[in-house]
Amino acid sequence: MNHKDVVALVTGGASGLGEAGILELVKKGAKVVVIDVDADKGEKLAANIGANAIFVKTDVTSKTDVRQTIQKAVDAFGTINVVVNCAGVVNPGKLIGRKGPLPLDAFNKVLQINTAVA
Fold first, then answer.
1. Cα separation values, 90 from 61, 63, 112, Å
2. What is the reported pTM?
3. What local confidence, expressed as pLDDT, does residue 22 receive?
């Protein structure tokens, strides 16, 4: 694969596995769209990369946010041909703990983000 032809949209891109993937893609010549809810980290990462990256603050559980992000990516780079989903959260609760079951809304939020169902 010629990475110079790659435009990758990376969720959870401002840190951790997403950031590592972005840095590797850019090193090989790809353009990237850094997607995250952490604007400070995302903007800093995109600025450090330069012209081959943009940051778009995105809640991956929001269809509206995701659609707007896709449009911004296409406006910036003309296409998207790779999507890497690294968005994820953990909830410190247990499904069934000393205080009873994990609230359904907390469990649902973890599933929505980690599986990017938007």
1. 15, 21, 12
2. 0.85
3. 98
